[in-house]
Amino acid sequence: MEYKHFNHEHNLAIFELQAGNGIHCSGCRTLCSNSAYACWKCDFFLHLECGNANRAMEHPSHELHHLTLVPYPTYSAGSFVCNACGAPGSSFSYCCSLCEFDLHIRCALLPAIISHRAHPHELSLTYGLGPQAKVSSPPNACDICHKLVDNKFWTYSCGPCKFQLHTSCATPEMVPISYQADGVSGNAAVEAGPGFYKEENGSGSSQNGSKPAEVEDPVLATQLELMRLQQELELSNQLAKMMASYNLSSLV
Ligand SMILES: [Zn+2]
Ligand SMILES: [Zn+2]
Ligand SMILES: [Zn+2]
Ligand SMILES: [Zn+2]
Ligand SMILES: [Zn+2]
Ligand SMILES: [Zn+2]
């Protein structure tokens, strides 16, 4: 199976990459291992997560406007500052260019509520005031790295306990509980579909042992369910007949 991504001229295929290969994702510039989309000619790689990211989304942290997935920062500096984690980025971002609001893909997909080994209660994703904001509340320390947390950027927090983690510190060991906050889906795709569409006419021979999970055919599933119901109906009919004949004969 080959795939066409909006940000690459050649078709991509899914490969299993060894850990420690030094290959970086062209979407987020972090290391790639396990399954990834690849164009070997161009050294172009994408995490599945980065390649499958929708072209646009609505995010509850920026309710004014849709965010659009842009492959490169549109700013003259050639980089952006992520409104979630405060770290710079130089490749894919979910961007509102009107407000100069940017999120790394990974930050945009952070779940609203998590559980974490470091704290007995659920932690909720708490949005910050943005990179330009003045730090108003006295800064706390992150309970994992013990560095300061300010109110510009996002944290995972437990309000009653005043427990806070940087999102980046929480991520390696977090267990997602809910992707929904206040009924608003942080991951809702709007208008545009995923960055990929499938190239059905691809040779597929370049695939390397990664079989996508077989998606259950809904039509087939419905047919099977109908057959099962039919059989149940027939059984109960037979049973009714048996009962009836039994009753009749017992009446005689
Ligand atoms: Zn990536
Ligand atoms: Zn290429
Ligand atoms: Zn970020
Ligand atoms: Zn905006
Ligand atoms: Zn931290
Ligand atoms: Zn707590």
UniProtKB/TrEMBL annotation:
Keyword Iron: no
Keyword Iron: no
Annotated keywords: Repeat
Annotated segments matching region Disordered: 195-214
All copies of domain DC1, residue ranges: 7-50, 60-108, 119-170
Cited InterPro entries: C1-like_sf, DC1
Protein name, UniProt field: DC1 domain-containing protein
Lineage start: Eukaryota, Viridiplantae, Streptophyta, Embryophyta, Tracheophyta
